[in-house]
Amino acid sequence: FFFVMMRVGALLVLGLAVVSATVFVPTAYRVGQGPPPFPHVPMNKHHFNVTMSDGVVLTSTLYTLKDVQIHDTKLAITHQSFPYGAMTEKFIALLWGLSPLLKLQKRHGLLLTHTRGSAPNSGRFPGFRQTRDVQEWVAWLQRQPWYNGVLFSTGLSAMGVMSYLSAMVGVPVKAQSVSIAGADEYRLIYRNGAYRALLVNSMLEFVGQPSYNLTYVAHEAPSDWWSATNLAGHYDDVKWPALHQAGWYDAFLQDTLDVYHNYRTHASSDVRDLQFLIVGPNGHCFGGGAIKWDEGKTKQLQLLGSVIEAVLFGVLSAADTPLKFTLGLDLLKVLFKPVPRAFWYVMGPGLEGSKGNWIAAGPALPDPTPKAWYLTPGGGLSESAPATPAAAAFLYDPADPVRTRGGCIMGAAPGQGDQKHAIPCGPWDQLPVTEGRRDVLTYTSAALPEDMAITGHTTVVLHVGSNATDTDFTAKLVDVFPNGTRLLLQDGIQRMRWRELHRGPQPMNPGETYRIEIDLWSTSYIFNAGHRIGVDVSSSNAPQYNANPNTGLPLKDAAPHRTAIANNTVHMGPAKASYLRLPVVPMAAAASFAEGAVQELLRSLNATTLLGAPSHEALW
Description:
By secondary structure, the protein is α/β, with parallel strands linked by helices. It contains 15 helices and 23 strands.
């Protein structure tokens, strides 16, 4: 065990030479293109049938390297709950086979448990309500002669959600690596009461379960039905180190950031300092956008994630007793002592000579100072609230919604569902979908005299009214370029009848004013001098969210022919101020991690591993 631990530094050197298996949806994906080619990795493939307590048989597939035979060895197991098809399984197995970890430690296996309702399994597809199956599957695993007692949990997207939720049933995980996922199914399906139609439909089509959307529609309220897939209240059951990876334009961005925060603050005290965060500019969809990110920097983040995961798993790969696990955590704290716990991509306009598009690092994401920018009559955005009351009104017609263009979405592939064209995520100019529309209010600041960095949670506070009993209000944060481009940074929505979510649906009273806060999630960006800050306010963003019919009816009772036009109002002024709240940080807090610092950090970690680790005797 200690021989393995003392040599784990070799992984870091290997990691620099190995083509890193990206943990994000590959940035090379483009509309109309397939995945990038991968080298062949010779592997063994073993199939098992596992019978659940209700009689449903779930298939599991175990992958090992070709020269590892399960009849004469014991393996540490990396597990994923798997709802996808054969092509995706092959892709996941190849990513695992290319892991730097396997260059040193071959006695590992990847075990994919196919969920019920997915081919060839029987049973009804359960969405993310699979924790009981995971619990029974682990009991089966513990009886297998080839299992060494060490379990790692990983997952991307839906598999990552199940990895997070496994903590609810006491799965004995030693370390975890999750990418672009969340741990609260309700928040994945609904955002401030609005149904995330594009995400849900794309996700369910991908796993071959399109009819399951009826189940989600039937549970529009945040009732106890959702508690089975919400990790809240279970974070103190997390007793392992973890790597959390997100993307600033990912459909699960805020969920990943919130899980990371809860692990850091509520997990077992001896692993709180072994939580790592990497945030790239990536998304959960097809690539694209007005900005082309620095490919070298994104690859550095991907490599860093692969190596951190390899070190976590490598050190703990033989920690089959509580003593070995405790000693392994101690060694990890030594190895990672010089390593920042958070790495994130600071975005920028991408123009020649502009600031941004680099990697920042620190013990965590920086604590911002909230700064208000007030909506003013005539479309201004000011650091001071208007001195006199004012209002702006528009008509919202559900039959003609503002179309989605970019943002934190799961992009639809060409021809998928009712989409004739792909809807890519990311930083797209909003003018093509908003210019000339009377139902979009645009607000723009004066040109900034100097650069301004933001990192963290962004909110738009509005005082609103309507003649309808229910409607939506949407907000977008944009960077307004000198040429007029309104580059989307983040967006959000509030469905008005769910403005007090846990009190149940609350109809609006026509003529009454309501204060709402639209959560625009988080971002990290540098507004360059000469650019302007922009906010777009409207009542729709389709098909990202289903267009609100303005009738106040439950989602399950809505119908295309049952709609109403809403007359919506946004108030401004001293008593009913509407404003943008930006998470401003000092430029130093968003400064670039020095050029070549990732490679230098890896070399530093390697030296620490080989020269600075406690001796075998001291550890015992």
